[in-house]
Queue: 2 jobs
Job 1
Amino acid sequence: DAGITQSPRHKVTETGTPVTLRCHQTENHRYMYWYRQDPGHGLRLIHYSYGVKDTDKGEVSDGYSVSRSKTEDFLLTLESATSSQTSVYFCAISKGDREYEQYFGPGTRLTVT
Amino acid sequence: GDSVTQMEGPVTLSEEAFLTINCTYTATGYPSLFWYVQYPGEGLQLLLKATKADDKGSNKGFEATYRKETTSFHLEKGSVQVSDSAVYFCALRGLTGGGNKLTFGTGTQLKVEL
């Protein structure tokens, strides 16, 4: 257990509304990640962070922004949600030797209607 | 760039059957390799890993050997149980690029029946 929680666990929202998902960790790890999981695509990286206020884009970052003002929290914001952003979102941290091992939160199921 | 290719599922087996899920990769040098498992409604869990050629990762009866000559990391288990039903993901951490990012395969669903 890597002490990762995500909130909310489920959310239904309307097209065009802003949405923020929260990832919280209890172990002070430097690296944090946001992925989305869709059938047939596996996991795709949205954004990641390598420290407070240090973030970078992943392969599917369009339409998403992130913030990390504290080590323990990594927020993912959909500025104006679209139906194509309906997905399951996972947060992860990395730790272990060379910080290569990633550990995942329980996920947030987001439905955009 | 780095990539991971897994056999497509679903794979359906009877309990106590032998399991192999194929995984091959493309990457420069010697990446670190991982298998993750995802049970329904849950996040991914690290199952096993290998960080250099000929390493064998093992956990909970599952094994995978890092084969540099065939760029493969196939997952095996000698006798599967119904409780092994899940989606299995192969992943690699390449040597290029920052952020300790992982590249994932698309996942292979395993169904084990009595």
Job 2
Amino acid sequence: DGGITQSPKYLFRKEGQNVTLSCEQNLNHDAMYWYRQDPGQGLRLIYYSQIVNDFQKGDIAEGYSVSREKKESFPLTVTSAQKNPTAFYLCASSKRWGQNTGELFFGEGSRLTVL
Amino acid sequence: AQTVTQSQPEMSVQEAETVTLSCTYDTSENNYYLFWYKQPPSRQMILVIRQEAYKQQNATENRFSVNFQKAAKSFSLKISDSQLGDTAMYFCAFMEQGAGSYQLTFGKGTKLSVIP
């Protein structure tokens, strides 16, 4: 079945450590996204990518980095520069511009806790 | 910048009853999409319904329908014959329609509980 796989589901990190969250999709979608979800805050866009080897900052990119070396993969690194990294992270994908009518397909999320 | 406001942080409804979730938005654009997404307790978010701003007819999907008031910038979701499986967070979202448009702006969500 086609879908989006995020791993790990739960992750604990010590302060000062970088951590990478994995996101893989087999939907053949061109566009991929990372959102951060905090209680009472809704979803906020961290980064998005429209095509391989290209990505743009979203509303809250500071302290995060991404790469898009393959169409299927869009990993997110939470760096030590992120001041409040404890959150729920959602990865999503969609069809490319011109075919994109706004439907995002989401993974099940990764919960990061900084100890 | 577009903003999306959901004024009801939490709501509850009896099973089989009807409930309406509110959403307002602010934009200077004329062409856009509006969405309702559902996030059940299992956390995988899915699209419930989509409305294109140029269409006057309100979108419907089975028990889910919207009341789209473009002039008032209002986009409410009505769930009829509520079921226990409707218990979830519901997010209203906006997307500008145009070249290179990829970003959705989400509201803060409404937590809906369906009571047996």
